[in-house]
């Protein structure tokens, strides 16, 4: 199952935007155009399915933080997602007089032989009898999502990664409370350690094969438990000019090594759509050029179903890869009435098919206007 279409109305940067998605999606646009907010709409659906709409809104700072800023009155926020061109799930909500989220419309459609069947429509008669029911979505309730639980499970499978190497190195220094599925990498080492040994060793071997090419001095990647503390650590053999630098754990890994290792592990470690935030950070551009191919190759080796991947990027190196088509790119364009999302047009796609790269054809169109004035800036 993959996401084939997303519609956002009154969500953060987006007043009214629609995006069509394939198996691989690259999101490009100027800074603050809404690339992260686009990914967060998908994360929001995951959080609603897992923990409910109130918590999903609260962890983002409340209704004011998720509501589109440019509207003149309190709007309904709407997120509608099509899956495999078969399912359609739509959630609309606004705030009540206490500022809490309240469902205003929720529906599920299922298409069979071209005919659309509506499986869920809210508010319904029961909601009319008890308005408190609208403080919860049907998506989050097992007694209501029986007929479309595949959708709830799919949303729960969405994973987001924006690795902060310092959190991987020293997670307790940032939070004494153990984290689970932390998008920033605090639980990376424990995730690897808690994976069944046979599966873990197989994955680490494949990751090691990639790392020794990207980091030639590194080899023999494994995970070990410290006998004195019981805390697991990554371990590598590292050839170095220093006589005692041969064995290192994650505390000594470079930012680039930790980012690449985490990205590779993430490809293996879960199902469902994978949302990656600027995976090129800290990596040499020659490695960045190979990332799309590495992701695709590792995905093929998974015993589970292949994964849909969304990648936000500013990287010319990544987008210079010849295999990236114009139909795989979403271009975010900010306007005074909110960010618009568009795909490459026919002329742009034709130019890419004729031999130019996405980096050459589309990336220049995301540069801020009047960017040349930065060279005139001076501090008096």
How many domains is the backbone divided into?
2
Query: How many H/I helical runs?
Result: 14
Question: CATH class of the largest domain, anyone?
Answer: Alpha Beta
The main sheet comes to: 6 strands, antiparallel
Q: How far apart, in Å, are the first and last alpha carbons?
A: 57 Å
CATH topology description of the largest domain: Rossmann fold
CATH superfamily of the largest domain: P-loop containing nucleotide triphosphate hydrolases
**Percent range for helical residues?**
25-40%
Contiguous low-pLDDT stretches (5 residues minimum) are none
Q: Topology as H/E string? A: EEEHHHEEEEHHEHHHHEEEHEHEHEEHH
Broad shape: globular
Please compute the radius of gyration using only Cα atoms.
23 Å
Can you walk through the features of this model?
By secondary structure, this protein is α/β, with parallel strands linked by helices. It folds into 2 domains: 1-158 and 315-369, P-loop containing nucleotide triphosphate hydrolases (Rossmann fold, 3-Layer(aba) Sandwich), CATH 3.40.50.300; 160-271 and 274-307, Rossmann fold. It is built from 14 helices and 15 strands. The chain has helices spanning 35-51, 53-58, 63-66, 125-129, 149-156, 165-169, 171-174, 188-193, 197-214, 255-269, 285-301, 316-319, 346-353, 358-361; strands spanning 3-11, 14-20, 24-28, 77-83, 87-95, 101-112, 115-122, 159-161, 218-225, 232-238, 247-249, 274-277, 309-312, 329-333, 340-343. The strands form 3 sheets. A 6-stranded antiparallel sheet has the order 2-1-4-5-6-7. The chain has a 6-stranded mixed sheet with strand order 8-12-13-3-14-15, sandwiched between helices. The chain has a 3-stranded antiparallel sheet with strand order 9-10-11. The termini are far apart.
């Amino acid at each position: 199952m993959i996401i084939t279409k997303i519609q956002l109305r009154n969500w953060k940067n987006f007043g009214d935007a629609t995006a069509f998605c394939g198996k691989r999606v690259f999101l490009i646009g100027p800074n603050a155009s809404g690339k992260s907010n686009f990914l967060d709409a998908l994360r929001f659906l995951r959080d609603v399915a897992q923990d409910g709409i109130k918590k999903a809104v609260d962890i983002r700072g409340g209704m004011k933080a998720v509501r589109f800023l440019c509207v003149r009155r309190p709007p309904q926020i709407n997120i509608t997602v099509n899956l495999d061109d078969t399912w359609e799930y739509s959630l609309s909500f606004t705030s009540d007089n206490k500022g809490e989220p309240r469902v205003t419309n929720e529906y599920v459609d299922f298409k069979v032989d071209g005919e659309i069947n509506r499986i869920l429509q809210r508010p319904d008669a029961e909601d009319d009898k008890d308005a408190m029911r609208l403080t919860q979505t049907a998506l989050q309730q097992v007694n209501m999502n029986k007929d479309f639980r595949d959708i709830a499970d799919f949303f729960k499978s969405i994973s987001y990664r924006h690795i902060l190497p310092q959190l991987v190195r020293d997670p307790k220094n940032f939070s004494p409370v153990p984290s689970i599925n932390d998008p920033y990498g605090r639980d990376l080492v424990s995730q690897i350690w808690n994976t069944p040994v046979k599966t873990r060793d197989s994955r680490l071997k494949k990751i090691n094969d990639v790392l020794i090419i990207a980091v030639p001095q590194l080899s023999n990647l494994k995970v070990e438990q410290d006998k004195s503390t019981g805390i697991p650590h990554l371990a590598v053999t590292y050839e170095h000019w220093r006589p005692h630098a041969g064995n290192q754990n994650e505390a000594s890994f470079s930012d680039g090594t930790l980012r690449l290792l985490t990205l590779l592990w993430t490809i293996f470690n879960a199902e469902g759509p994978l949302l990656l935030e600027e995976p090129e950070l800290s990596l040499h551009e020659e490695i960045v050029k190979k990332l799309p191919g590495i992701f695709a190759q590792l995905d093929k080796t998974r015993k589970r179903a292949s994964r849909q991947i969304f990648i936000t990027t500013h990287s010319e190196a990544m987008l210079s890869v010849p295999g990236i088509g114009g139909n795989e790119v979403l271009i975010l364009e900010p306007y005074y009435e909110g960010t618009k999302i568009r795909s490459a047009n026919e002329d742009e796609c034709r130019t890419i098919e004729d031999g130019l790269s996405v980096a050459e054809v589309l990336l220049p169109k995301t540069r801020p206007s009047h960017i040349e004035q930065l060279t005139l800036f001076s501090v008096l």
